[in-house]
Amino acid sequence: MRLAIFLLIFCICEYALGVDPTNFKTCEQSSFCRRSRKIQPGNSKFALVPGSMNTYSNSITADLINKDTHHLYVLKLEALVNNKFRLLIDEKTPLKPRYKVEHVLIGEPQSETLTVVKEDKSEIVLQSGSNKAVLFADPFRVDFYENEVLVVSANAKGLMNFEHLRPKPQKNSDGNPPEEEGGEAANAIPQTPEDSDPGAWEENFKSHHDSKPYGPEAIALDFSFPEAEVLFGIPEHADSFILKSTSGSDPYRLYNLDVFEYIIDSKMALYGSIPVLYGHGPKRTAGVYWQNAAETWVDIYLTEQNVVSSIVKLVSGSNKVDPPAAHFMSESGIIDAFILLGPKPMDTFKQYTALTGVAPLPQMFALAYHQCRWNYNDAKDVETVSANFDHYDIPMDIMWLDIEYTDGKKYFTWDQFKFPEPLSMIKNLTDLGRHLVIIIDPHIKRDGGYFFHNDCTENGYYVKTRDGKDYEGWCWPGSASYPDFFRQDVRDYYANQYLLSNFKTVTNDVMFWNDMNEPSVFNGPEVTMPKDMVHYGDWEHRDVHNLYGHMHIMGTFEGILRRDPKQRPFILTRAHFSGSQRYAAIWTGDNMADWGHLQHSIKMCLSEAVAGFSFCGADVGGFFGNPDAELFERWYQTGAFLPFFRSHAHIDTKRREPWLYPEKTRLVIRDAIRKRYSYLPLWYTMFYEHEMDGSPVIRPLLTHYPKDKEGYAIDNQLLLQDRILVRPVMQQGVSKVDVYFPALDEKRTVGDLWYDVDTFQKYDRVGRETIQVNDYKIPVYQRGGSIVPKKERIRRASTLMKNDPYTLIVCLDRKGKAEGTLYLDDEKSYDYRQGKFIHVNYSFDGGKLTNNFIKPPNYETKAWIERIVIAGLDRQPKSATITINGVTDKLDVSPFEKAFVIRKPGVGISKDFEIKLNY
Q1: pLDDT at 311
Q2: Residues contacting residue 490 through CB under 8 Å, at least 6 positions apart
Q3: Cα-based angle 431, 432, 438 (whole degrees, multiple of 5)
Q4: What's the rounded Cα separation, in Å, for the pair 444 and 451?
Q5: Do residues 581 and 572 lie in contact, with contact meaning Cβ atoms separated by under 8 Å?
Q6: Contact, 534 vs 552, CB < 8 A?
Q7: 3-class state of residue 656 by DSSP
Q8: 311 CB contacts (<8 Å, ≥6 apart)?
Q9: What is the pLDDT of residue 631?
Q10: Is 667 helix (H, G, I), strand (E, B) or coil?
């Protein structure tokens, strides 16, 4: 018992000391990465087998051969609708099946007609609509064309690798293979690089041993982007939005890990892995989704822009340069790559979400402000914090409880001394319009008095060791085991624990936080589960590691739906993979209270958004450390314009509720939160439209300004759709910041008009503009040509604002036009999927504002339009005339900052109307 306590204390102390990079592998320490990276470009050993092609209406298959080993593979190339191809490569006759990723795609992708245009010994040309794929036989390569333009090339660098499964070599006592008669090695096969690699069949890292029972099985493939100038994607990393060259450094790593106090400007793996990458240039954008759940490393090759390369080109007389490229290297599985042909940035983003899904529209409260720390001490503490938000008139929708609310870290239980009557505490919150979120992690305490552990033990629900025993690791409860969520019956059991008949001390309005689900194992290799553990289907953990958290949240989502099928679930997860956006929101994990981590919150969430995960935020204030007043203020101002807005802190930090800081800081924070609440109609509309078409909610500048090369690398700004530009203040002690206004053309001569949302000052230029800022100022601009809905009656919680009136902010473009949308429904249920909503487009043209219902309104609301602010008019109208159902009325128009306001039009949101300005 003493030893167990010592080990737990040691693990927790190690966790609290901050990240030690030596606890995590480098590529050189990861044998499959080391082998794959040693392959030299321009010398591919793979070739198509002549005469092996079979044709189908939407695909072709053909055999591939490794010319060194003579091992055969089967290739399938399939045309998909909406400018996509799918490339699959597997062993033709593997010793055992290789893992193919499941539970990620929203369904079987819809195929498109594929026609063989040409076939000879050197190449095969396939046509699908205006798209084309050309397969070169030897060396093997596939070029993908969008409208006759080459946008992606697979294996152009010749870095493909596919280590076939093989029996383990037998050795004599002298370490050499046994010999047959005649002196031949008994299992003589052509030698491969992995045969001489000491990590091929077993591998050690620090004190941990990986048995590797199936030996070397790595796969790799490179993708070039001839039309691109920059590459981006493959979250999650605390690095710049635009990917950096990995020449001379480790590749980017995709391997879900619990990394606390993570390093910024780093290619280290973090909590989530989304293997989608994009190449962008002024004329084209294309992408590749590498569907593989094993540990993956990605090398990035960028065009060399230096003196030496220029001299070489000059001497050689060649202008040819290698295009940007990425080399994906995974430990196991098959090659399963989706080619996204664009051609525009938004096209590629939607092509990806068409495969892996979108975030469902959250309840309105989830888009409001969340208050959390590890931990609120007891029910009285929760009540006091909630009351103080009201006392200081600061809006807040959700209180959160971390692991200390439980009875000894046993989930689905409560500490009966700290929280003796949880239902009363919950009711006190919901009576105020607020919600409660509690944490439920996947590590299950090994305690004979704990029903969950006993059920998992008796039914064999835990992940197993190689010898069939329940795997045991260490996490917050001490000794713990981990449910095998890849089993449907385990997910069913877990989901049923959320039923109120089982979890009787919560209500339907309580939502959930799934943390530590990489999975985190304090005493495991790299703080996670050993790779040779066994899951359902006899798959090793190495095959499915990056999917474990995804399967966990699938079970949670199902549990909340079973509890109340009418209410939309809210889940926050740390671990994630492609498709996880269908179930949960994410945050950027265990950040620190410093300016660098604040700056990276924007970079990281932009990378997640283009990879399908718009519902992203960062712990406001930093999880570790104690932010000073200035940092805390600026973090709230930044967090107010990220999709997920939560303050959170480590158990060892000072309490940091806003009123514990000086009054000035409290008022700045209050102002930032209130600004967030005023924009909730826009956030809600954006998330609905994301569910409808897959477009990111927050976006990098290149999304709408693809020709502006100066804007590609800007990741201290973000767009909310194409309506709002945000450049938070994220530097210490500054009184001014540079805001970049992007260009619409490649020569950077023209851009949009932009209006300061506070003053409606108009900015009509391209490039950097120095903006003066004070303590309260958040540089935020509305695009000329857009209309943004707001609510300006701020209440204690968003749930109490449901029927409050709207303000429309109309910012005109150079032609005096603008348009924008508003969406509303009951903010809670799934009734909107039966058409019970209002989705309206507002348009201003020729001095008239009109509305047009995108679908006939089918929802009753008391909400109405209270104000209309119009910016960009060249003179003040004398009045305005509103017409509703043929009845007209005159409205006053008065100056407001550098704009004009029409007060109290009084028209219901569900009514048709026209407002005409009178001069």
Answers
A1: 47
A2: 456, 461, 483, 484, 536, 555
A3: 85
A4: 10
A5: no
A6: no
A7: coil
A8: none
A9: 98
A10: helix
Q: What's the CA gap between 344 and 349, in Å, rounded? A: 9
The one-character DSSP state at 485 is: T
The neighbouring-strand residues paired with 118 are 125
Catalytic one among 143, 222, 590, 715? 590
Give pLDDT tens digits for 711-742: 999 999 999 999 999 999 999 999 999 999 99
CA angle 166, 170, 173 (to 5 degrees): 160
Question: CB–CB of 442/519 below 8 Å?
Answer: yes
CB atoms within 10 A of CB 315: 8
Task: Say how far apart CA 430 and CA 508 lie, in whole Å.
Answer: 11
Q: Residue 475: what residue type?
A: C
CB-based contact 486:539 (threshold 8 Å): yes
pLDDT at 914 over 60: yes
Of 394, 379, 380, the closest CA to residue 657 belongs to 394
Rounded CA-CA distance 537/82 in Å is 34
pLDDT of 306 strictly over 50: no
pLDDT band, residue 22 (cuts 50/70/90) = very high
Q: For residue 722, indicate whether it is catalytic.
A: no
Tokens standing for residue 330: 């995974």
d(CA 203, CA 199): 5
CB of 42 closer than 8 Å to CB of 157 = yes
Please tell me which residue in 441, 515, 543, 752 is annotated as part of the active site.
515
Quote the tokens at residue 217.
């099985």
Q: What is the pLDDT of residue 193?
A: 81
Q: At what angle do helices 663-678 and 629-639 cross, to 10 degrees?
A: 0
This prediction's pTM: 0.96
- 741 forms beta bridges with 767
Residue 239: closest CA among 526, 596, 646: 596
Q: Both tokens of residue 257?
A: 């890990």
pLDDT at 4 > cutoff 90:
no
In angstroms, the CA 806 to CA 827 distance is 15
Report yes or no: 84 and 341 within 8 Å, Cβ to Cβ: yes
For residue 497, is it left (φ>0), alpha (ψ between -120 and 50) or beta? alpha
Separation of alpha carbons 734 and 771, rounded Å: 11
192, 276, 563, 790, 830 from 836: Cα distances, Å: 62, 35, 22, 21, 9
- Residues 402 and 376: their CA atoms lie apart, in Å, by 8
Give the mean pLDDT of the chain.
Answer: 95
pLDDT digits 0-9 by tens, 458-476: 999 999 999 999 999 999 9
* Active-site residue, 347 included: no
- pLDDT at residue number 172: 67
Q: State CA 489 to chain mean position distance.
A: 28
Residue 185 reports pLDDT greater than 90:
no
**Element housing 380 (H / E):** helix 379-391
